[in-house]
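Hey L., structure's done. Input below.
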Amino acid sequence: MTCRRHAIGSTTIYSTATLGLLLLGSAAAGAADMPRQGDFRITYTSTVVGAPKPVTIGENRMASATINMMTAVNESGGKLLHNMAGRCTSAPVIDNGAKTLENHGYCDYVDADGDHVFEKWDYPLQPLAAVNEGTGQWIGGTGKFAGLSGTMTIRSRRLNTLTDGAVQVVGEKLGSYSFTYTVASAKPD
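Output:
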């Protein structure tokens, strides 16, 4: 009887160890199967639930600062920014007299594993239009996104919203990325 318990216990230990290795292997595979470089097409949405009243900075000119709630889906089939939520800062300057826009900001996206992607973006001074265009760059990340860099073109379109005071935007990010991994020396110089 003692021998039988030992055999069942050994099987349980081996099964638990095997399951643990399989889980660790799948987590490592998720990080490892992301190509070190590639192109992407990411669709995003941005919502500011309660846009603050802009600050007047001259005749017909206004500036504001907001935090935008974001979602992103990688349309090119990659893992970069696929099904991720985020927050972005936004610092637009609008000149209603000249009908121009300028906007700058940063974003922090997070995936289901808790890994982050960091982005910097700029819309240079341009005419207010149905679609505005800017540029962006990946400036790093954590976990599987550590060492992320790359550039993109960003196109955005402001939507009519059904909620008073809210601002909603849809757009796409098109560009390329790469990962640069650096290993720190374990021994100080």
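Helices lie at 2-32. The first strand starts at residue 37 and ends at 48.

-- N.
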